[in-house]
Amino acid sequence: MAAKAKTGGGLFETVKTIVYALLIAGVFRTLFFQPFWIPSGSMKDTLLIGDFLFVNKMAYGYSRHSCPFSLCPFSGRLFFSEPERGDVVVFRHPVNGSDFIKRLIGLPGDTVQMVNGQLVLNGVPVPQEPAGVFAEVFEPQGPMRALPRCENAPVGQGGVCTKSRFRETLPGGRTHDILNIDKDGFGDNTPVFTVPAGHYFFMGDNRDNSQDSRYARAVGGVGFVPAEYLIGRADRIMFSSAGTSMLYVWTWRAGRFFKAIE
Predict the structure, then answer these.
(1) Which residues are catalytic?
(2) Are residues 143 and 75 located together in one domain of the fold?
(3) What is the mean predicted confidence (pLDDT) over 111-135?
């Protein structure tokens, strides 16, 4: 009887340990990090379709949109630290509530404009240097099976799809790659945007393939994003899959494990 009791007790302890571990993992994920799977090409070549990363929800503090189960006892945002220009940020779309990931370009009070494809911040053109060509296969990508847009279009199935790449240096010295598809795209020449207090201006690195703050919400853009809609900062890619599922390990991209996000 003693042996049976001990066995039963051991099983109970094992189950309890597993339950506690799952609860701790759930709390850790809810409070500190959120997994994010890149579904589109708006942030190429910084982020590729199929990149898997964790978003640091503690980077900026909490808001009613990032708190678990809307438990935050406040409206607006409780900042631990301010977002910085150049951060890659996950935020909630102010209208439809879906999660977006873009680069933070404009801070409250900044003026932002695109002139002939060049970013102008507070009246000063942001330097761009040619950085070669980004090339990929013209084929369906990711679970959504989207075809990439190509600067050298038209490209046949299986052909090489290219985009001009530039190295952009933001005020303060942070650099990142941007891609060009159109010579005079809809977002290459814009009016001057003045970022309101408590809001941020975001853009995708794949500049001609991103519905971002350059576009009004009425046409699918995000407009100015209120601070309380920020979820967290993306710092590092954990792994990346070129296939239709993250479970297809044979499609994982070897060079992107634990890759820092610039």
Answers:
(1) 42, 102
(2) yes
(3) 97
